[in-house]
Write a structure and sequence with these properties.
With about 250 residues, the protein is mainly α. It is about 80% helix and about 0% strand. The chain has ten helices and no strands. Helix 3 packs antiparallel against helix 5. It is globular and about 65 Å long.
Length: about 250
């Protein structure tokens, strides 16, 4: 759901612009896009941390899994995810709404990226730039730290498993989640690092496509690879493509 909202905040307006050959967006529309984009992005990040904690409990405390991950805790984690996402979205919207823009500005991206909007403001200062990056680092850093801590605990538990089969079974339950984490944070960090290091619009746009469209599209496919029927169908397609006469 978070991936769907993350993509839906950007793609519909982009497709409308391509269809109508009109690349303009109103101030209210841009602010709405920022709100939904940040909310769904933060939700995605926090839910990845919650899923990492779920894997931690399942591998490190398998006998107490049903006791620890009870309905009350799951409900609390969902509400916490919603609260943190709303707070992150609210802070970004307040920051953007306090900026002063000249008329007819051109955003060097296909959506209202807060970092790009900040650079286009008439009253742009390095302090405001630092503040918005600190907000992103805080709300992105807490889930990332939780994911890192969870996998450190998982690895330290799995390496003590005597059998190779047991180690493989434990790591295989984390493979899809770890792949999605690498995709999400890798493309996101790449996009924001490129916006800091380089001002080339094309490079920043390519990086933005990675984490706004490619990553959410690949996530369901990555998670479905744990399904044996999907694996069998995928290997059949690979075998057929390899042995198909040209």
């Amino acid at each position: 759901m978070a991936d769907l909202g993350f993509t839906s905040a950007v793609v519909p307006n982009m497709l409308l612009n391509l269809q109508t050959h009109n690349k303009s967006i109103s101030y209210a529309g841009c602010l709405t896009q920022v709100a939904f984009f940040i909310f769904c992005g933060c939700m995605d990040s926090v839910l990845l941390a919650v899923m990492a904690y779920d894997r931690l409990v399942a591998i490190c405390h398998p006998l107490h899994y049903s006791i620890i991950m009870n309905a009350r805790l799951c409900g609390f984690l969902v509400l916490l995810s919603l609260f943190l996402s709303f707070l992150d979205s609210l802070l970004h919207c307040l920051m953007v709404s306090r900026l002063n823009f000249c008329t007819g500005i051109e955003i060097p991206s296909f959506f209202c990226d807060p970092s790009q909007l900040l650079k286009l403001a008439c009253d742009y200062t390095s302090t405001k730039n630092l503040f918005i990056y600190l907000i992103g680092a805080f709300f992105g850093g807490i889930p990332a730290s939780g994911i890192l801590y969870s996998y450190i605990q998982i690895v330290s538990t799995v390496i003590r498993v005597p059998s190779a089969r047991g180690k493989y079974k434990a790591f295989s339950t984390c493979g899809s989640h770890l792949s999605v984490v690498c995709l999400f944070y890798g493309t996101g960090l790449g996009a924001y690092c490129s916006s800091v290091v380089s001002d080339a619009p094309r490079k920043m746009m390519v990086a933005s496509v990675g984490y706004t469209m490619v990553t959410p599209m690949l996530n369901p496919f990555v998670y479905s690879l744990r399904n044996k029927d999907i694996k069998r169908a995928l290997w059949f397609l690979v075998y057929k493509a390899a042995h198909c006469p040209h």
